[in-house]
Design goal:
Elements: H1 18-33, E1 39-40, E2 46-48, H2 49-55, H3 61-66, E3 68-71, E4 77-80, H4 85-94, E5 104-113, E6 125-134, H5 139-155, E7 162-167, H6 174-185, H7 194-202, H8 213-218, H9 231-247, E8 252-253, E9 265-272, E10 281-287, H10 291-294, E11 302-308, H11 309-319, E12 334-338, H12 341-356, E13 361-364, H13 369-379, E14 383-387, H14 389-394, E15 396-401, E16 407-411, H15 415-418
Parallel strand pairs: 1-5, 7-8, 12-13, 12-14
Antiparallel strand pairs: 2-4, 3-4, 5-6, 6-11, 7-9, 9-10, 10-11, 14-15, 15-16
Helix pairs in contact: 1-5, 1-11, 5-9
Bound molecules: zinc ion (2 copies).
Length: about 425
């Protein structure tokens, strides 16, 4: 028995024509974000484990339970990246990108890895596209990025896009809020889920993000961070709101929103789309003004977001109808049926010329004319061109339009113009 391999549990292949849809999404990201100054960065998919412990936070679910970490042959502790921002901040510091004129703006695409239970509909290798902007503290850049994200989602055809924003404070005002939260949860400590009991000690902010029903119940009257923001954070947030209003970008203020990662400060945002039920966030992000200096770089304010490719693709498929579903999926424009070795050689030459002009061409290499016509039909080709002995002699090729049934004969030199 030969082994029959399958992909690992929780990871999957993205096949054509689905990949065409992914390409469309990525191209749209470049088209929309390029004019805003975002250029692509390609960080590696693995890093020192320490990098993620220091940035995402070792109390986060990601680091505590979901990281793909291993010791490599050199005895180094390595992890597959669970998200993109940490690597990009590492690259920003390592290559002294702070010396380049601010702001520095980056766009990325690629796989992320988290060891999650696949039955929740989540992949262990999943793809994100994201953007990061370094060097501007002004809420103007927050408004710019959020507006850009919404335009991108609208450009790819997402329906019912809605934006939620909040501020989660800074290192001046957050400690007091954490104390307030702790005081609030202390009488309920025994009723919280085991994860939240751990969060209570390590980072009580995370309790606000718990999905367990009894934790949601308990926290209903928890204090809000908006009540304890320092004046600078208040000004920053009202600055953002004023700019979003001025741009006509609609938003909801969600005072309960926090993020699952430790490094966020001030602005956090989430974009939802109709059509995914309860779990309908398609993109999320926020400010991380302390992370660059945490990684040994100069004090550098920064902001970013990430969007899940699988989710975007699923929503677009849901919304689309008929042929628009997979824009990258093209049937051959021309199928060349050949009879004999010489004809096949000629077909390859002609196909090269047509392909150089951007036409998608397939060749029927062998078999009867009838069986090649069947193949052409199945392939969805628009035209069949036939090459046999007669055609080679006369230099005129018979063709048939498979869509409307019309047919004719065209000289070799005119083929390019004809199709
Ligand atoms: Zn503050
Ligand atoms: Zn909980």
């Amino acid at each position: 028995m030969k082994p029959r391999f399958t992909a690992l549990k929780g990871v999957s292949d993205v096949l054509p024509p689905e990949t065409g849809l992914w390409r469309k999404i990525e191209n749209a990201a470049c088209e929309v974000m390029g004019p805003y100054g975002y250029d692509e960065i390609k960080p590696p998919v693995m890093e020192q484990t320490e990098l993620f412990l220091r940035s995402i936070g070792d109390s986060s679910d990601i680091v505590a339970k979901e990281m793909y970490s291993f010791t490599d042959k050199g005895g180094r502790n390595v992890s597959l990246r669970p998200e993109g921002t940490a690597s990009i901040v590492r690259a920003y510091v390592e290559h002294n990108l702070s010396l380049r004129p601010a702001p520095q703006k980056f766009l990325y695409f690629g796989p992320m890895f988290r060891y999650e239970r696949p039955q929740k509909g989540r992949q262990r290798q999943f793809y994100q596209l994201g953007a990061e902007c370094f060097g501007v503290a002004d809420p103007g850049i927050d408004a710019e990025m959020i507006t850009m994200l919404v335009s991108f989602l609208e450009k790819i055809g997402l329906k019912g896009v809605s934006l939620e924003i909040n501020s989660i404070g800074c290192k001046e005002c957050r400690p007091a809020f954490k104390e307030n939260l702790k005081a609030f949860f202390t009488p309920h400590l025994d009723s919280l889920c085991p994860d939240c009991q751990r969060r209570y000690e390590q980072n009580p902010l995370r309790i606000l993000d718990c999905k367990v029903e009894r934790c949601i119940q308990i926290r209903q009257n928890a204090p809000l961070i908006s009540e304890t923001l320092c004046q600078d954070c208040k000004d920053h947030f009202s600055g953002l709101i004023g700019l979003l209003d001025a741009m006509g970008t609609s938003y909801f203020f969600n005072p309960h929103m926090v993020r699952g990662l430790d490094y966020y400060t001030r602005t956090v945002f989430e974009v939802k789309s109709e059509g995914l039920g309860a779990q309908n966030a398609v993109a999320a992000g926020g400010r991380y003004d302390l992370l660059v200096s945490e990684f040994g770089g100069p004090d550098t304010p920064a902001i970013g977001f990430a969007a899940g490719m699988e989710r975007l693709a699923m929503l677009l498929k849901e919304a689309a109808t008929g042929e628009e579903v997979f824009p990258g999926a093209a049937s051959p424009a021309i199928f060349i049926a050949t009879l004999g070795k010489e004809a096949a050689t000629e077909a390859l030459k002609i196909a090269s010329r047509l392909r150089a002009a951007g036409k998608r061409v397939e060749i029927g290499w062998s078999g009867s004319l009838k069986s090649q016509m069947r193949k052409a039909d199945k392939s969805g080709a628009g035209h069949v061109v036939m090459i046999g002995e007669d055609e080679l002699k006369t230099g005129k090729f018979k063709w048939k339009n498979l869509k409307d049934g019309s047919s004719g004969e065209t000289a070799k030199e005119e083929l390019l113009a004809k199709f």
